[in-house]
Amino acid sequence: MNAPRGRIVRRPVHGVLLLDKPIGLSSNDALQKAKWLLRAEKAGHTGTLDPLATGVLPLCFGAATKFSQLHLDADKAYVAVAKLGEKTSTADAEGDVIQSRPVPTLTQADLDAVALRFMGDITQVPPMYSALKKDGKPLYELARQGIEVERAARHVHVSQLKVSFWQTGSTDIAIRIEVSCSKGTYIRTLGEDIGEALGCGAHLISLRRSVTGGFTESQCMTLQTLEALTEEERLEALLPVDALLTGHTQVTLDTDNAGRFLSGLRRRGNWPDADRVAVYGTDPPSLLGAAHIQAGELIPSRLLSPIEITQVLEQRAHHV
Q1: What is the reported pLDDT for 109?
Q2: Is the pLDDT of residue 2 over 60?
């Protein structure tokens, strides 16, 4: 499904849409569809989901795009189903089967033991079918040409992992993988590696992201629901820009200091050190940007422009 074509008048839109990405769409296709429905001038997402994956995909509009990196770096949780006994070229159902092996007799105790091996700090070799780049070219483009290049192993952290049986048919044996992990964890690779550890290989047949940062699937909206709303209701469905800054230390500045902060100047105050700070002004109450505090200095990192602040306030006033 591609974004509908036609002349539309774009407008400044600011906020976050928690999308339940459908199967079959790339993250960018889903973003472009939502951007079209909102008539937004500027939009971005917070990390790619494979076309075969579904689930939580926060979409950022306007000023919110300045903070999308925060959720690229956030911990995430997934639920995947992997078919045992078959390894594919892509580690999921999109690829060709490149190896078949019999599935040994397994018990839940076997699955529990293997899960323990993949808990904590682990290393992964990223798949060839990934958006990582080699000499400026995405690996998946090389993979489609039949080219395989060496990939450096990367360190990731798995904080929770549960593996259980998931029967998909009379002859197929599959497992359900529930995982909470750090950014950069490839769930396709995890499923493949678990299959290897079980002695039979595996590939993913479904993947759903259930959590990213503090956002959960229960908060998400489908594209069909968004499409069915009126234009005003679509704007009302957006979370405010500072929804991306939940958990940040909050600092509020008076008018004089707010103006200087927005000019990129550091401010001094009796503040404890903090890595992540959300900075607000008082007149009117509004988000100014993000910063960090070091040795009593409030150091700007991402700032809203004066016009963005005005537009955010106008949008908020219109939908209160």
Answers
A1: 96
A2: no
Residue 254 catalytic?
no
Query: Rounded to an integer, what distance in angstroms lies between the CA atom of residue 287 and that of residue 280?
Result: 4
Torsion, Cα of 28, 33, 34, 37 (10° steps):
160
Which helix H or strand E contains 309, and what residues bound it?
Answer: helix 306-318
- Percent helix, strand, coil in the chain, to 5, is 30, 35, 35
Residue type at position 116:
L
Q: From the DSSP assignment, how many helices (H) and strands (E) are in the chain? A: 9, 18
- For 195, the 3-state DSSP assignment is helix
- State pLDDT tens for residues 37-49: 999 999 998 878 8
Q: Which of 20, 29, 50, 135 is catalytic?
A: 50
Residue 87's CB: how many other CB atoms inside 10 A? 19
Containing H/E element for 54?
A: strand 53-61
Residues 74-92 have pLDDT tens digits of 999 999 999 999 999 999 9
Nearby residues of 129 by Cβ (< 8 Å), 6 or more positions away:
89, 90, 91, 94, 95, 139, 140, 143, 188
Domain ranges of the chain: 15-73+214-241, 76-212, 247-318
32/41 Cα distance (integer angstroms): 11
The CATH number of the structural domain formed by 247-318 is 2.30.130.60
Q: Which two tokens stand for residue 201?
A: 């290989």
Token digits of residue 90: 């892509």
Question: pLDDT tens digit string along 240-274?
Answer: 999 999 999 999 999 999 999 999 999 999 999 99
Fold entry, domain 76-212: Pseudouridine synthase (3.30.2350)
